[in-house]
Amino acid sequence: MRIVAIAMAALLLTGARPALALDAPKLNYKEETAFTGTHIRRDVLRDSWLPINQTYQEMSPEYQRKLRAVYNNLAEDDEPPFPLHGLGPSIKQLREVHRRIGGTGEMKLILSVDSNGDVGDVSVYSASNARMAYYGAILLSKEKFKPGVCHGAPCAMEFMYRFEYAFFDDVIDDTAVK
Asked: Per-residue confidence at 167, pLDDT binned at 50, 70, 90?
Protein backbone atom coordinates (compact mmCIF):
# COMPACT_ATOMS: atom_id res chain seq x y z
CA MET A 1 0.00 0.00 0.00
CA ARG A 2 2.83 2.39 0.84
CA ILE A 3 4.45 1.65 -2.53
CA VAL A 4 1.27 2.76 -4.29
CA ALA A 5 1.21 5.94 -2.19
CA ILE A 6 4.86 6.68 -3.00
CA ALA A 7 4.30 6.04 -6.72
CA MET A 8 1.26 8.35 -6.77
CA ALA A 9 3.21 11.03 -4.90
CA ALA A 10 6.02 10.77 -7.46
CA LEU A 11 3.53 11.18 -10.31
CA LEU A 12 1.95 14.20 -8.63
CA LEU A 13 5.33 15.83 -8.00
CA THR A 14 6.45 15.35 -11.61
CA GLY A 15 3.18 16.71 -12.93
CA ALA A 16 2.33 13.48 -14.77
CA ARG A 17 -1.38 12.93 -15.17
CA PRO A 18 -3.52 10.38 -16.93
CA ALA A 19 -4.49 11.63 -20.39
CA LEU A 20 -8.21 11.41 -19.65
CA ALA A 21 -7.95 13.63 -16.58
CA LEU A 22 -6.68 16.64 -18.53
CA ASP A 23 -10.11 17.56 -19.89
CA ALA A 24 -12.00 17.87 -16.60
CA PRO A 25 -11.30 20.58 -14.02
CA LYS A 26 -10.26 19.11 -10.67
CA LEU A 27 -10.92 20.38 -7.19
CA ASN A 28 -8.39 19.38 -4.55
CA TYR A 29 -8.99 20.02 -0.88
CA LYS A 30 -5.73 20.28 1.07
CA GLU A 31 -4.89 19.79 4.72
CA GLU A 32 -4.80 23.06 6.61
CA THR A 33 -1.40 22.19 8.11
CA ALA A 34 1.31 19.94 6.74
CA PHE A 35 2.30 16.70 8.43
CA THR A 36 5.26 17.00 10.82
CA GLY A 37 8.56 16.97 8.94
CA THR A 38 7.31 18.47 5.68
CA HIS A 39 5.89 21.68 4.29
CA ILE A 40 3.72 19.89 1.74
CA ARG A 41 0.03 19.79 2.59
CA ARG A 42 -1.52 16.58 1.31
CA ASP A 43 -4.84 16.27 -0.47
CA VAL A 44 -7.65 15.12 1.80
CA LEU A 45 -10.05 14.89 -1.11
CA ARG A 46 -9.22 14.73 -4.79
CA ASP A 47 -11.23 15.08 -7.97
CA SER A 48 -14.47 16.16 -6.36
CA TRP A 49 -16.83 17.31 -9.08
CA LEU A 50 -18.78 19.53 -6.66
CA PRO A 51 -17.55 21.90 -3.94
CA ILE A 52 -17.92 20.08 -0.63
CA ASN A 53 -18.17 23.07 1.71
CA GLN A 54 -21.11 24.74 0.00
CA THR A 55 -24.84 24.25 0.18
CA TYR A 56 -26.86 23.99 -3.02
CA GLN A 57 -27.79 27.69 -2.78
CA GLU A 58 -24.13 28.69 -2.30
CA MET A 59 -22.93 26.75 -5.35
CA SER A 60 -22.29 28.67 -8.53
CA PRO A 61 -24.84 28.25 -11.34
CA GLU A 62 -22.22 26.17 -13.19
CA TYR A 63 -22.02 23.62 -10.37
CA GLN A 64 -25.79 23.62 -9.97
CA ARG A 65 -26.03 22.79 -13.69
CA LYS A 66 -23.50 19.96 -13.27
CA LEU A 67 -25.59 18.47 -10.49
CA ARG A 68 -28.84 18.95 -12.39
CA ALA A 69 -27.31 17.21 -15.43
CA VAL A 70 -27.15 13.96 -13.44
CA TYR A 71 -30.96 13.89 -13.34
CA ASN A 72 -33.18 13.07 -16.30
CA ASN A 73 -36.17 15.18 -17.19
CA LEU A 74 -35.81 18.02 -14.67
CA ALA A 75 -37.97 20.98 -15.62
CA GLU A 76 -36.35 24.43 -15.66
CA ASP A 77 -37.73 25.30 -12.21
CA ASP A 78 -36.90 21.88 -10.67
CA GLU A 79 -33.99 21.32 -8.28
CA PRO A 80 -32.43 18.07 -7.08
CA PRO A 81 -32.10 17.29 -3.37
CA PHE A 82 -28.77 18.13 -1.77
CA PRO A 83 -27.31 17.72 1.75
CA LEU A 84 -28.56 20.67 3.80
CA HIS A 85 -25.08 21.61 5.04
CA GLY A 86 -23.18 20.53 1.92
CA LEU A 87 -21.19 17.36 1.32
CA GLY A 88 -18.42 18.18 3.82
CA PRO A 89 -19.98 16.91 7.08
CA SER A 90 -20.95 13.53 5.63
CA ILE A 91 -17.57 13.12 3.89
CA LYS A 92 -15.86 13.79 7.21
CA GLN A 93 -17.97 11.11 8.91
CA LEU A 94 -17.40 8.60 6.09
CA ARG A 95 -13.65 9.22 6.25
CA GLU A 96 -13.71 8.43 9.96
CA VAL A 97 -15.58 5.16 9.31
CA HIS A 98 -13.08 4.33 6.58
CA ARG A 99 -10.16 4.92 8.94
CA ARG A 100 -11.56 2.23 11.22
CA ILE A 101 -12.45 -0.25 8.45
CA GLY A 102 -9.59 0.36 6.00
CA GLY A 103 -9.25 -0.87 2.45
CA THR A 104 -9.72 0.88 -0.86
CA GLY A 105 -12.63 1.12 -3.21
CA GLU A 106 -15.83 2.95 -3.94
CA MET A 107 -19.45 2.88 -2.94
CA LYS A 108 -22.52 4.33 -4.56
CA LEU A 109 -25.66 4.66 -2.48
CA ILE A 110 -29.08 5.82 -3.66
CA LEU A 111 -30.87 7.88 -1.01
CA SER A 112 -34.62 8.42 -1.23
CA VAL A 113 -35.18 11.96 0.03
CA ASP A 114 -38.76 12.92 0.88
CA SER A 115 -40.37 16.35 0.51
CA ASN A 116 -39.27 17.29 4.06
CA GLY A 117 -35.61 16.56 3.31
CA ASP A 118 -35.51 13.35 5.34
CA VAL A 119 -33.86 10.20 4.01
CA GLY A 120 -36.12 7.18 3.80
CA ASP A 121 -34.67 4.19 1.99
CA VAL A 122 -30.98 3.80 1.27
CA SER A 123 -30.08 1.36 -1.51
CA VAL A 124 -26.58 0.14 -2.24
CA TYR A 125 -26.03 0.64 -5.96
CA SER A 126 -22.46 -0.68 -5.80
CA ALA A 127 -19.81 -1.20 -3.15
CA SER A 128 -16.37 -2.74 -3.09
CA ASN A 129 -16.55 -3.18 0.69
CA ALA A 130 -19.77 -4.42 2.30
CA ARG A 131 -18.88 -3.00 5.73
CA MET A 132 -18.25 0.49 4.28
CA ALA A 133 -21.58 0.29 2.47
CA TYR A 134 -23.39 -0.85 5.63
CA TYR A 135 -21.99 1.90 7.86
CA GLY A 136 -22.20 4.47 5.07
CA ALA A 137 -25.90 3.69 4.64
CA ILE A 138 -26.48 4.11 8.38
CA LEU A 139 -24.65 7.45 8.46
CA LEU A 140 -26.28 8.85 5.35
CA SER A 141 -29.76 7.75 6.42
CA LYS A 142 -29.48 10.35 9.21
CA GLU A 143 -28.40 13.16 6.86
CA LYS A 144 -30.78 16.11 6.48
CA PHE A 145 -31.33 17.35 2.92
CA LYS A 146 -32.65 20.33 1.09
CA PRO A 147 -35.57 18.52 -0.57
CA GLY A 148 -35.94 18.27 -4.29
CA VAL A 149 -38.15 20.87 -5.94
CA CYS A 150 -40.71 19.88 -8.58
CA HIS A 151 -42.52 22.76 -10.34
CA GLY A 152 -41.76 25.12 -7.46
CA ALA A 153 -42.87 22.81 -4.62
CA PRO A 154 -40.82 20.46 -2.40
CA CYS A 155 -41.02 16.87 -3.63
CA ALA A 156 -39.49 13.44 -3.08
CA MET A 157 -36.49 12.64 -5.23
CA GLU A 158 -33.47 10.35 -5.14
CA PHE A 159 -29.88 11.44 -4.53
CA MET A 160 -26.88 9.30 -5.52
CA TYR A 161 -24.01 9.51 -3.07
CA ARG A 162 -20.65 8.38 -4.45
CA PHE A 163 -17.69 8.00 -2.12
CA GLU A 164 -14.23 6.78 -3.11
CA TYR A 165 -11.99 5.66 -0.30
CA ALA A 166 -8.29 4.98 -0.43
CA PHE A 167 -5.29 4.87 1.83
CA PHE A 168 -6.02 7.75 4.23
CA ASP A 169 -3.54 7.76 7.09
CA ASP A 170 -4.53 8.54 10.66
CA VAL A 171 -2.49 11.74 10.43
CA ILE A 172 -4.84 13.49 8.00
CA ASP A 173 -6.26 16.64 9.54
CA ASP A 174 -10.06 16.75 9.47
CA THR A 175 -10.12 20.54 9.74
CA ALA A 176 -9.71 20.74 5.96
CA VAL A 177 -13.25 19.38 5.56
CA LYS A 178 -15.54 21.52 7.68
From this structure: low
Do the domain assignments include residue 58?
Answer: yes
Domain of 6 in residue numbering reads as 2-33+42-170
Residue 177 located in a structural domain: no
∠ CA 136-137-141, nearest 5°, is 115
Q: How many CB atoms lie within 10 A of CB 91?
A: 21
This model's pTM is above 0.70: no
d(CA 171, CA 82): 30
Tally of structural domains, the chain: 1
What DSSP letter does each residue of 22-38 carry, written as one string? Answer: GSS--EEEE-SSPPTT-
**Segments of 4-156 assigned E as strands:** 27-30, 43-48, 82-83, 105-113, 119-127, 145-146, 148-150, 153-155
